[in-house]
Amino acid sequence: MKYLLTFCLFACLGTNVFSQTKDKKSTKPNTPVDFTTTPLATITIPVTVTTSIENKDPKDIDRVIAIVNREVITEHELKNRINEITKQFIEEKKPLPSKEIVQKEVLERLIDESIMYQEATIFGFKVLEQELDGILNNIATQNKLTLDQFKTTTEKSGTSWEKYKQSIRRDVIIARFRERSVESKIKISDAEIEAFIDSKIKRPQSNEASVAESPEMIDIAQILIPIPTGASNSEISALQSKAQLILEQTTKESEFMKYAGQLAAVDKTIRVQDLGYRTIDRLPQVFVDATNGLAAGGLVLKVIQTAAGFHILKVLDRKSSTSTQASQNNKSESIYITQSEVNQMMLTVKQGASEEEVIRRLKSFRDQIKVKTVNFSDIAKKYSEDPNAVKNQGYLGWISPGQVPPEVDVAISRLNPGELSEPFQTEFGWHIVQLINRRQAEVTAAQQKEYARAALRQSKLMQANEDWIRELRDNATIELRPPYTMTK
What we know:
Blueprint: H1 2-12, H2 15-25, E1 51-52, E2 64-68, E3 71-74, H3 75-91, H4 99-122, H5 129-142, H6 147-156, H7 161-181, H8 190-200, H9 208-213, E4 217-226, H10 233-250, H11 256-266, E5 271-279, H12 285-291, E6 304-305, E7 309-319, H13 324-332, E8 335-347, H14 355-370, H15 376-383, H16 389-392, E9 395-399, H17 406-413, E10 424-426, E11 429-443, H18 445-474, E12 478-480
Antiparallel strand pairs: 1-3, 2-3, 2-12, 4-5, 4-7, 6-7, 8-9, 8-11, 10-11
C-alpha cells in the first residue's frame, strides 16, 4: 500500500513532464510501448505553489502548517494535494489508505519538494521561458490539444495558467536537480552483475552428452532494404547505395539492434529481424556463406543482395557443434522463455466520459479487426492513446514475460496466435491486445546481463534517492505546526 501511494506521489511531482524535456534533446526513438511510464494524458499534474515567506501577502495566508528553510507550506496546499491523490486513486479504482497515512505521506512529499527546489535554485538550476513554452507545448500535444485549448482546459479546472506554469517550472527544476545529483552517479560493476545473475536467474543444468551431438546453431540479425516488385534498374541501384550507406554507419554503432530499430522507426520500408537460433540447414545458403567464420558479434562487411532486397547481416551468437559447446554453455548458460509478438491499443477514461463508453469503443474496434474491415495498425494509429501509437501503429514487437504490466501478460496468455483479447484495464488505461505469434526464445548471457544491469540500477536508484533526500533533510530547517491536529 505504501509503495502504491509513493508511486502516485512521485507521478504527481511531474517526472513525466521532465521526460518530455529529455526527449527533445534526444534523437533516440521510443522503444515499443514502454509501460513503465504513465502517459501524460492519464495523469493530472497538481499545482505546487509553496511560497516564500518574504513574498507572501498576509491576506493570502490561510494557515501555515510547516516552515521549510525560507518557504512555508499551508493547510490549503496540503488539502489540495490530498484531493489530487484521492481523485487519482478513485479514478484508477485502487483502495485508498487511511486518511492519516495519506495526510502524513503527502505532507512529507511537500516538505521534500520544498527542500529539493530550494537546493536546486542555490545550485543555479533554472528553466528559461522559451524552454518552458516548449515543455507546455509538448504536454498539450500529448493530451491531443493545442496550447490554447490546453490553457482553457487548465483554467476551467480552477487553476490559473500562470500558477500552472509556475508548477511545471518548479517540477522540471526538481527533476533535473535529482538527475544531476543522483541518477548520473549510479554505477554498476561487472562483479555486481555476475552476483545478481548467480543469485536471481535460474539456469538449467547443461547436458554435455546431448550438447555434443547438437548441430551448429547461429543467431543472425538483419536489416533488409526490400526491392519492390517491378523496380527499375535505377531504383534498384538507388536502394543498393542506400544499403551501402547504412552498412557504413552500422560499423560505427555498438548496438546493432538498437540502431536498426531507429532506422525502421524513421523509414517504414526498412525491415529489421532477429532470426533467432537456427541450424545451418534452416538458413539461406547466401547467409551461411556470408557469415562463415564470423564469431559472435561479427558484422558482415558487405551488403548481401537477394531477390528480396539488400541485406545487412550480423552474427549475434554462434553455438559450436563440438563437445566444446559444453564448456561454452558454462559461460553463456542460456535459459529459454516464451516470447509473444503483440499488437495493442489503449484508451483512457477522460473527463465527461465513462468506462462503459471506453469499453464499448474498444469492443467495436475489436469486432472490426476480427471481420477484417480494418487493420489493427490503422485503427491503433488513429485512435490509440498510447504516446507511441503514431510511430509503432500499435505494434509492441516480441515481448518477454515481465516486460509489460501483469494484466497484459495474463491477457496474452489466454490467446492463440491471431486472436484478440476482450477489453481489460491496467493502471494506464483500457486495452485490447492481439497475439500475432509465439516462440521459445533463448536468453543469452548478454541478455541476462542487460536485465541484471537494469534491475540493479533501479534498486540502487531507489536507495540512492532515499539517501539523498535524507541528507538534504538533515541540512534543512523544518518547523512543523502540528499537521496531525489540523482543523477538520
